Every structure is written in C-alpha cells, then in structure tokens.
Amino acid sequence: MNPPILVTGGTGTLGRLITPLLREAGHPVRVLSRRGGPSAPGIEQVIADLATGEGVDAAVRGAGIVLHLAGGQKGDDRIARTLVRAVQRAGGVRHLVFISVIGADRIPLAWLRTKLTAEEKIAGSGVPWTILRAAQFHELVLTMAQKMAALPVVPVPGMRLQPVDSREVAARLAGLTLGAPAGLVPDLAGPKVYPMGDLIRGYLRATGKRRLTLPVRLPGRAGRAYRDGANLALGGATGTRTWEAFLAERVGQPAPAR
Questions:
Q1: Helix pair 243-250, 138-149: axis angle to 10 deg
Q2: Tally of helices (H runs) and strands (E runs) in the chain
Q3: Over 70: is that where the pLDDT of 81 sits?
Q4: What is the pLDDT of residue 253?
Q5: Nearest-CA neighbor of 219 among 160, 157, 142?
Q6: What is d(CA 207, CA 178) in angstroms, rounded to the nearest whole number?
Q7: Residue 257 — pLDDT band, cuts 50, 70, 90?
Q8: Closest CA to 34 of 16, 14, 59
C-alpha cells in the first residue's frame, strides 16, 4: 500500500482536478483544507490551517509525498515555512512539490516575492523537491474580465498574458508529483500570447456586452517587467487549449481568434 499523497489546497480549482488523477494512478490522497469536506474511497479529508499551523503536523504525518497547492495573494511565504517545518518534523516525506507562478523571480511585486520566498523554502527544506511555475489559469482571467466588465469603462492594462488551461496544469503536475524529484522544471503556459485588451474584448463579444475600454499604462519597475514579457513562458512548455476554446465552453461562442 502506497503512503498517502498530501495535497494542500486540495479543494481549490487545481486541487479538485488533480486529486482524481492521483487516485486513478493508484495512490491514496489526503486533502488538507481549513474547512474539510466529504471523504471518498481513497480520499481522506483533513482539517488544518497553514496560516496558524494548527493541525498541520497531524496532516503531514505518514505522507510520502506532499503536493503544495495552497496559496493566495499574500502570505505564501509564511504558509510554505509552516508546511516545510512540519515536513521536516515528520521525517518520512520523500518528495515535496510546489506550484508557483511564471515571473516570480522577475517581476517586483509583493505577492510574487512571497511566491519566490516560498520556492526558496521548498528548495531549502532538505527534502527532494520539484517546482512548476505556471501562467495564469483561464479561470482567473475570466474572473478578471467579469469584474472589469462590470464597470462602465473598462481599464485595459498595457500587458500581455499567456493563460493556460487548469486541466493541463493538473495533468502536468500529477506526472511531476508521481515522478522523481526534478528541481525547477520548465514553465507551463498556454499556446497563445494575448494583449490584455484582446482577452477582455473576447469576453465582451462572447457575452454580448458593450463597454468602452481605456488603455492604462502600468507604472514602475513592475509595469516595465510586464511590458517586457517577464510573465510569459521563456522556452517552457505550452498547453494546447486556447482562451477562445475556454470561453466557448464557459460563456458562449466567441468571435474567431485572430
């Protein structure tokens, strides 16, 4: 019997996709979340709080692999430190896997610095590790577009994105989790690079909304980094599912891609 794979953030967008893949590969899965959920055959739900450390030691105990998906716009450095300390105390983890963001080491934003620090905590844990940096998921771009489209005039930042399908990230990450520790692997992004304006206009067309758009120049060093494409895959792997295909599935048929 394989020891369980602990998945932090297992109830989130990526976690819900990757848990069945790990089960299909024959591995029991232990899902860590703050609120828990219903268990299923081969899937154990445990309640723990990475922000406070409560319950984390018990969640890690007995796990052979830890897949760290939990994160947000702040505090990723702190929760990574909490998890790493629990892994070190447990002593039986043989592979520590982390999902990060493309540009964490190139874009000077506070939330990306916490991602980079979290990477450093994982790499310095003393446990064999793998880190995958991925682009923004289509779901996140959709949420951004929905919020912007609620405004009478839509601000359009001068930046490009290379959104990736979350299912393709889940498949890639499942393979990495079940494979040998590989360190920092090639980035994973979507098949196309889009100016932000094209992404927003595609959403507006797909939903039949009409809005004025206003170009906005991102200031400072972070704005320069985005204009230079620091958030794009540089020689990494690319998925196959486009923003247009995602929109067609989620909100209707968009106009053909250019």
A1: 70
A2: 9, 13
A3: yes
A4: 55
A5: 157
A6: 40
A7: very low
A8: 59
